[in-house]
Amino acid sequence: MKIIPMTAEACLKRLEPADAEEMFWLTDVNRPYLRQWLPWLDMVREVKDTARFIALTIDQHHRRQGTHYGIWYNGRLAGTLGVHSIDWANRKTSIGYWLGAQFQGKGLMTQAVAAYLDHLVFGEWDLERVAIQAATGNHKSRAIPERLGFRLEGVLRSNEFLYDHYVDHAVYGMLAAEWRSRTSADESGSGT
């Protein structure tokens, strides 16, 4: 079980089959909240649907196409993040994430994405580029790449069908050198 520390109260832990019940519960109790922006809620009706997703992420990891982590806060699953796939020829990927409403406002997702980028995307995998897409109206999700210094690269019109309508997506990008420069500046500025 791979664990990436974030804070004294929070860490990232690679999703495993034992997480299915808690992940389903978190999804289910947040269904109306998550439905505003995530198109897959209707496909998750039972614990076995969540277990199937976790099995796919484990297979994804074994095929070297990335991995998904649970975001754990005080011993409870708060949300998830992971890559959609990895384009090894071009050394790039895109990430997605979600957080239960009861865990909002604690800085968890910003810390989780930063740790994921440090340890995996620009660390272990040594990729050149990562993208984050979010519906233009999803201000909470868009705030994550903006806080982390990603560049807004454009808007994809009618990019995703969300139950009964299309939404535009803002596309943010970060290059490895930009991330390393940002984190170096943060480290050198912290001691002054």
Automatic annotation (TrEMBL):
It comes from Brevibacillus thermoruber. One of its GO terms (molecular function) is protein-N-terminal-alanine acetyltransferase activity. Gene3D superfamilies: 3.40.630.30. Transmembrane segments: none annotated. This is GNAT family protein. One of its GO terms (cellular component) is cytoplasm. Residues 27-178 form the N-acetyltransferase domain. PANTHER family: RIBOSOMAL N-ACETYLTRANSFERASE YDAF-RELATED, RIBOSOMAL-PROTEIN-SERINE ACETYLTRANSFERASE. Pfam families: Acetyltransf_3. InterPro entries: Acyl_CoA_acyltransferase (IPR016181), GNAT_dom (IPR000182), Ribosomal_N-acetyltransferase (IPR051908). It comes from the Bacteria.
